[in-house]
Write a structure and sequence with these properties.
By secondary structure, the protein is α+β, with helices and mostly antiparallel strands. It has one domain. It has 2 helices and 12 strands.
């Protein structure tokens, strides 16, 4: 039996086309079934040690610095927004309930949580009283802002990218976060 002949045939392509959506559905179902144990905390003001905020997949994502220090305010086509490591936009997930994340597995691969070690510090334009953390199921700490858990979008690669805004994925919507701690929505959504 030949496992790989080096040629791609219409039969092998048909098998791949059938297998990929099935695998994605299984991963999505597994991601949505986890719950989090959370303990929200509030951020300190400037003068304390900065937090290390990075996407969960920072080790595999060379475009994001694992040593990014704080949330800041950036600009986008939607106006002022909260940004994280390297000036990348951060998002909230409408499916999350309080500080209990609904995003694990395949969801967290597409929407990496903004993880932090230490006490978060509000960067330029960020309201320190809205900044906090919540514990994820594996024990890591995720940044919150305005009570919303924060995530990056794997489809954004540089400052100013906001391609995740208004997306519907993994059972709910994804929105940017304003400096006031409110969700930003596309006009008409």
């Amino acid at each position: 039996m030949t496992i790989w002949s080096g040629k791609i045939t219409s039969v092998s392509m048909a098998r791949w086309r059938a297998a990929v959506p099935l695998a994605a559905a299984v991963l999505a179902a597994a991601a949505c079934s986890s719950t989090a144990s959370t303990t929200p905390t509030r951020a300190s003001t400037a003068g304390t040690s900065p937090a290390q905020a990075s996407p969960a997949g920072a080790a595999t994502s060379p475009s994001v610095s694992a040593a990014a220090a704080a949330l800041t305010v950036g600009t986008s086509t939607f106006g002022a927004i909260i940004t994280g490591a390297g000036g990348r936009a951060v998002y909230l997930f409408e499916k999350d309930k309080g500080t209990a994340s609904s995003c694990y597995g395949a969801c967290a691969a597409a929407w990496p949580p903004v993880l932090v070690t230490g006490t978060p510090v509000a960067g330029t334009g960020v309201n320190a009283s809205l900044l906090g953390t919540a514990k994820r199921t594996a024990g890591s700490m995720q940044l919150t802002y305005g009570g919303f858990l924060l995530y990056y979008f794997a489809g954004d690669s540089k400052p100013g990218d906001v391609s995740g805004e208004g997306s519907q994925a993994f059972g709910a919507g994804w929105d940017l976060v304003s400096p006031a701690g409110k969700k930003v929505e596309k006009p008409g959504s």
